[in-house]
Task: structure prediction
Amino acid sequence: MPPQSPLAPTRAECHPHSRESEVRSYSRKFPAVFAKGRGSFLYDEEGRRFIDFFCGSGALNYGHNPPAVKERLLQYLADDGLAHGLDLFTVARREFLDAFNETVLAPRGLPHKVQFCGPTGTNAVEAALKLARKATGRRGVVSFYGGFHGVSAGSLAVTGDLVARAALGTDPSGTVFVPFPEGPTGPFDSLSYLERMVADRSSGSAPPAAVVLETVQSDGGIYCASPEFLRGLRAFTERHGIVLIVDDIFAGCGRTGDFFSFEQAGITPDVITVSKSISGYGLPMALVLISPELDVWRPGEHSGTFRGNQLAFVAATATLDHWRDPLFLTRLDENAGVLRSFGERVTAELGLHVRGRGLVTGVDTGDAERARRVQELCFQDGLVMERCGRDDEVLRVLPPLTIGREELDRGLDIVRSALAATDVRGPGHAADAA
Result:
């Protein structure tokens, strides 16, 4: 049985299913039996309502059960639409590709081909790395401290987290790790380091096949690469014939304010991985977007039984309607402004470091135990929110993109109150922040 929580016992805590593995994680942090979700809210089986600042770890950017998407799915099922299609030509597949091209790719001048891989983010990263090696004939990859790219063998090889890597049971190799330009130990000149590594024949590292990065590191602690760094990295990879892979599995699909996280920098990556919120409904789906000259796959060279999740295609097509809606885009911008103001207030009142872009904010408490306590207090007050960072010391504020102002303000008030209640600087500071 998991350790006793100070919260009132619930069925989830007192009676974990005897058949379930100890690998479960989130149910230990949020001791409730959740029954349904609607919009920005989760409901447990006792009827208690929670504001959701967790969003399925980024898979529910548009909230729970968005009505227009649900209606499209129900109609598709009522019409006996295919649920499973591998890579057969289907109506649902074609309609998604048409909508994705017209709404996302073409307006941004992206010529990329679309690969449907296995429906998880880690499989998209695996495919991207395989393709980069195949296209360049090289083997090595550069990744960054704090990056998280998945838990399968190839993805773990470019993930810095030593705990996650240890679970593989062997030592993944073939990756050179470079400090991210921003991190817990301060700024770092990553570009100069990369230039020296490639130019020096005694560096021990041959020119790599690819550089892979998250422009906004999620698990690493919400560290953001600047537009200047991304432009410099794009120029570096072009000079040396290196494939630039942007892992937009977390930061894409609107999370940073634009559909893709790299748009602010004005760059075009060679390969882009997309998953999590691409279906808009929490249905498994993943894409690899490939510059046409790199699409050197032979038929069936990277396959998967569930690379044709037709229900996800239907949901994703319906979700793209948001990106043609001026009201959605206006709300997205307004909500991002509310989060910026929240961060400024927390910094001014509590002296904490706050980082982020768009609709993702990381509040760095500097103390894993304080962050855990804040998460617990928020849950008691009706808000679900995850932690991240090297030691889980960062609160990851992740509201739905579609959240209403009242719910957003209420959720941020809960977070701020919990931060004030755990402020160790003295009663005067806590009183000022309350």
Remarks:
- The radius of gyration is 22 Å.
